[in-house]
Amino acid sequence: MVPKHCFSENSLMIGRFQPLHNGHMEVIRKCAAESEKLTIGIGSAQYSHECDNPFTAGERYLMIDEVMKDEGIANYCIVPIEDLNRYSLWVAQVESLSPPFSRVYSNNPLTRRLFSEAGYELRDSPLYNREIYSGTAVRKKMTEGEGWRPLVPGKAAEVIDYIDGVRRLREITGGE
Ligand code: ATP
Ligand code: MG
Q: Residue 14 belongs to a domain with what CATH number?
């Protein structure tokens, strides 16, 4: 068994990535640079084809993986995580799916509380240009036929095009 302290430089960051945008990538780049290994958790993994969750976990996985490859970042793994809707068990659920980690990057108060109660080191992850870079803002632009491409990494846009994601979102929201 590898001693636990060997994983003290491993980190976790969780998002829904509906879709992956430039704000997410600012955090991911910083976390990966500060960590031995970064687990990127895809939250609410079971949802897709909904207005707020248009993309499947596999499609979100592909967006992240393609962008990381494109940026030459290699010290990461991606883990889809379904919602349990039972907060007291959520940390255990994440632990059971991720390689060991000891640091969590989050600005979400509930995530911070749950992981700090479980003894993890919490680090802040500042929000970059939140008015522009949010999943909600990207989906709104997609739905309304406005320019969404500058808000997401190029390779994520390629995946969205490949799966015809904008048309899906517009059909789901009744915009087409
Ligand atoms: P949505 O509007 O769909 O909820 P979101 O932009 O809030 O999307 P999520 O996929 O919900 O993004 O992921 C949430 C995590 O992503 C946050 O905990 C935060 O750490 C990070 N994040 C989101 N937007 C930014 C941003 N602009 N800058 C830095 N981090 C961000
Ligand atoms: Mg969010």
A: 3.40.50.620
Q: Which two tokens stand for residue 28?
A: 């991911």
Residue 2 clears pLDDT 70, i.e. is over it: no
The domain total for the chain is 1
Q: How far is the CA of 157 from the centre of ligand 2 (A)?
A: 19
In a domain, 2, yes or no: no
**Which residue range is the domain that position 128 belongs to?**
7-173
Give the tens place of pLDDT for each residue, 64-85.
999 999 999 999 999 999 999 9
**CB of 27 shorter than 6 A to ligand 1:** yes
Cβ(106) – ligand 1 distance below 6 Å: yes
Nearest CA to ligand 1 atom 14: 15
Spatial neighbors of 13 by CB under 8 A, at least 6 apart, are 27, 28, 31, 38, 39, 40, 41, 104, 105, 106, 125
Residue 56 has pLDDT above 80, yes or no: yes
DSSP string, 92-144: HHHHHHS----EEE---HHHHHHHHHTTPEEE--PPSSTTTS-HHHHHHHHHH
